[in-house]
Amino acid sequence: MTTARRPPLAPGDRRIGGHSLAFLRDPLGSLERWGGTDEPVVRLRIAGQTICLVTDPEAVQRVLATDAGDYRKAEVVRERLGTLQGGSLVLFEGEAWRERRQLLQSGFTAEQVAEMGSLTTEYAAEMVASWPTDRPVALDDRASDISLAILARALFGLDIRGERTPIHEAAEDVLARIDMQSVSTYLPEWVPTPTNRRFRRAVATLHDRLDETVAERAESDDPDGDLLGTMLAAGLPAETVRDELVAFLFAGFDSTATALACTLGLLAEHPDVQARLHRELDAQLDGREPTPAELQELPTLDAIVRESLRPYPPQYLLFREPTTAVTLGGYRVDPGRIVVLSPWVLHRDERFWTAPREFRPGRWLDGDGGRADRVGPEYAYVPYGGGPRHCLGARLADQLLGLVVAVVCQHRRLSLSGTLSVSAGPTLSLDGGLDVDAFDRK
Question: What angle (nearest 5°) sits at the alpha carbon of residue 152, between those of residues 151 and 155?
């Protein structure tokens, strides 16, 4: 057993309520303040829980990778997601987790993800063609629609373009239940708040719709190679298949939509960077729609996407808890204690990044304009997590972002007509929407 002392309390602790009020009022600003000390780990008191906030890259690496076997998903995550996706990988541990992870990885090979490229550019071209030139485009709504449409098609073969489906309706109420600034997030699900009641109805609606989808595919002779087909071919029970689809849908669409909107919003806010991207796209593609293979030949585009994910990581919090007493940054963390890793804090820390609040895609390029080998300390940049539990859909998300941004910028010149501002939802979310003018480049 470790004999190290507990981490120090973060600044701003109140005798009654601890850090709760500050977090509810301003989660992102509070995280930066608490993580801005010289301590690698600090202790928070929020909603009756003691939380260890880890802000040192070496300690983050220990949690996610080096000592990953000493940690599991935090109880708070299991409680919040159990009703929604109780039989999914995200809530598994040990050998059951390893077996399921190996199966699901077979549905996200490089070849399978690349096969989604033409579908992604098709959807993106349709979206851009529908955008007006005489009034602003609600970029947050458009990013959400296309992200959900692409993931629904990629995961379970549903074409929901142009529809307002039960999945759309359910998504809004499910995400509201796990919003960090919602009081219901900190209450048991059985408490009859309006948010909890809508959540239960939404889960029932979502389960019913996906149960139908799973049953229809199971009865068909179509062995489609999407994730749904992969799981059915492996003989997983229908309810388990549904839970995995729900897990991937909610882990993917909201965060990908935010990342897409923020990337395009940053380009609209920085016309010089956008102009460089236009030149690269024109020179390399000459009007052709990009393919996944051609993304490797677009280093400026790659740098823009990476840099966007730095100040605006959609998954701004990662939760773990140790299963045994551990030492992090020289401090003792007891088993069962909530450990929080914050990409939001890590990605904006001036100890690891030059001018962290500035949008500088060039930091990801070498002196010749190619991709830089390494930027910042390892595990100071973790937009998709890290270690064995890193995001399974990271390759698909990166491809979606690269292809959609490329198609948009081939056809339109963006200018910010609103303000790019984010808040702490279930994932990072746009605060008050995001409007851009999208002028035709031709």
Answer: 75
